[in-house]
Fold:
Amino acid sequence: MPPVGPSKKSVMANLLYKLGLFSARRAWLVLAAWVVILGVSVTSFLTFGGTLSSSMSIAGTPSQVVIDDLKASFPVASHGSGQVIFHKTNGQPFTAAERATIGRALDSVTSLPAVTGVQNPFETQAKLDENRQKLVDGANTAADAPAKLRDAQRKLNDGKKKLDEAQASLDAGQAKLDAGAKKLKTALADLIAKEKQVTGAIAQMTAAGAPASQIDPLKASLAQIRGGLATVKQQKVKLVSGQASIFAGQKKIDAGRADLVSGQQKINEGWAKLKANAPKLATAQRLMKAIKNFRTVSVDGQTASASVLFSKPMTSVETGQKQAVVDALTKFRSKNLQVEFASELTRAMPSLAGPGEIAGLIIAAIVLFVMLGTLVAAGLPVLSALIGVGVSATAALSFSGVVEMNSTTPMLGVMLGLAVGIDYSLFILNRHRRQLKMGTDVRESIGLANGTSGNAVVFAGLTVIIALAALNLTGIGFLGLMGTVAACAIVVAVLIAITFMPALLRLLGMRVLNRKERALVGNVEAQHEAEEPKNAHKPVFVTKHPWLAIVVPMIVMLIAAQPIGAMRLGLPDGSSEAVTSTQYKTFKLASKAFGEGVNGPIVVVATAPQKYTGQEKLNFEANIADAILANHIVSAAIPAAVSKDGTKYLFQVIPKQGPASASTQQLVFDLRDLSKVTEKKYQTSLGVTGLAASNIDIAKKLGDALPLYLGTVLLLSMILLILVFRSILVPVIASAGFLLTVLATLGSTVAVFQWGWLGQVFDIHDPGPVMSFGPTIIIGVVFGLAMDYQLFLGSGMREAYVHGKSPREAIDFGMHLSRAVVVAAAIIMVSVFGGFAFSEMTSVRPIGFGLAVGVLFDAFLVRLFLIPGLMTVLGKAAWWMPKWLDRVLPEVDVEGAALEGKQLH
Structure:
């Protein structure tokens, strides 16, 4: 075919035509420019690249609001920590020597940068056990105390009774003594009076000279009186002695009564102390009940969970600082001691080229070779895609030092950059080869290929870019960044295809054809075959059996879509990592030793109405812990910390199931609802956060945004297709086909990643919820690719219909024209995306799988069978469009037909 000049009808086609010619003329300059760009981007990445985050956050979600508040009012609470598991592999408990070794190992990391301390599991468990034992002893003492006090009271009462009896006896003795003294006093007075009387009588009689016979009786009487006096004196001595004994007895009784008073006082104090300690004991028992299931050393003594505490949030801890901790503790591994680390400590820069990704590239290269028949031509799309990915990936990573970027973000760009980079270059290469076979000059062919297929590439790339950039409309920061980075990767892929590829084609010249094809250049028969598809007028399967082409794909895809009703969104935890990874081992060891919930604790922040101290503080903690523990999904509610102002209380809530379980998700919502109860009862609001809660909030936010995003994409597809195809029904059925693709794709993703179907094939050993942002990414990307395939297949049909072919003949023509390249492009897409389905990054796998399945469904079932089948049934109605609307809409020359001096098809 002789060289033809471009028409001025299509501005974009003309521009790309000239760009293609420029790239061909200045091939080495263009190649050198891209090498320089690659060098600059790599240098920028090495100079400015920062740490990729393993976490995600969305401003305004309930958990993020709590985190932001804690950063301001309770900074220490936002500091990060990393879990380390020590496990005995010989089935024996830790020995004292091993405990000491682990203690020294943990102490050794406290001097590392960014590390503020460690939690020694054995010391923590010892304190827990000690406090629990003290509480048990206190409870036992409190339980025994009433009986002991009652027994002491009984003994005291018995003693009082005995003292009362002794007092009565003593009083009786005193009465007898008093009566005897009275009698003795009377007798003494009587005897003294008689003695005086007798003595006087004797003296008178003696003075009167009375005879002895008269005096002697008196003397005898006096002797008797004096004997009586002596007896009275003796009795008086006995009375004094008796009184002394009574006094001594009274003193003993008084002392006994004093002892009784003291004993009663002690008993009363015992009752008072028991009464006073009862609330404290009850509070302590409530708190201990709340942490009953919390342990740092397993019951069998074979597993211990330690924590390394950092001076800043984990997102701010450098990879090297985390790796230093891992290296320091790994040294202590031995034959009997296993040391494993949670993902917080081991998340690093992802590998951009794992075995799965490389296998996908190899398959793509094989497909290219089979299609093009020459290694040289087959290598061009792969080379251009790799250059594009190198530029876009390193450029994106160079911003990771100033923008918080999730580790999935660059991988998404790499995935899309590889897939579309190969396909876009293939479309231009295929057009160029076809024109060379028609006899077009190499340089002119490059310009035309760039202006026609390159124009379609730009248009197709623009649809993908718009769909990805539209992710920013969700208002979700990290998702918008993913979309932006992926869109930039598409931009680079398009630029590479329309500049780098033409330069390569110019340097290779006719070598993009194999020897047989080069030999046939100029042959009339070969030229005619290149101008028009082989068997262009032969009916294809879908026009011969339209209903079969409609019903079978719909049945297959509707079956595949069934699981979508059970779809749960979430983020992966340690159970989704490779079984050989330390993250997986940590997750499983912790689950077995302490329960699944320890892998996803929930942080509850209770904001008290005032500062509490002493018993009030303990009562408040117990009240909140009781309220939390009342939920049957909770395993433990641990009071963790109190802010300096004494108004914010942190509780670590351990669910009974893992962080990705439906019950844990429900628990987060239940705890937030509990705030209404605590506000009313204790004037205390509850905030819920933590990694598990954040992931659940992100999943909910993304799930809520999904219908709106899908609706936006469907509306966009309708507008785009109406512009291109000048039809109403073709865009309707094409968009409906896209919706069916989305449903089937997401249903398949649920079946594999959530239900575990084909788990052995895709290494899904622990099924869980679907990656929360996966469906949104899949919808955006599959939309762009679906529009690509619809454009490449449908534009040929439309051109044929516009130039006089019947609707059925136009479908046959368009299928023969573009089917081969679309099939090859789809196989390449499936291969590249499928490679990422086996990525080492668990967050990338479901996206790679979903995109591969989405392309598989959309390209092979929807675009090659369902849509052509429906168009066959609709006939002319498929191309109907109101005349007024046709006049209003602008012309869109997708394939740059205005460039052609004549129609190549």
Notes: The chain has four domains: 1-31+353-531, 124-290, 532-570+702-887, 602-689. The CA atoms of residues 362 and 831 lie 9 Å apart.
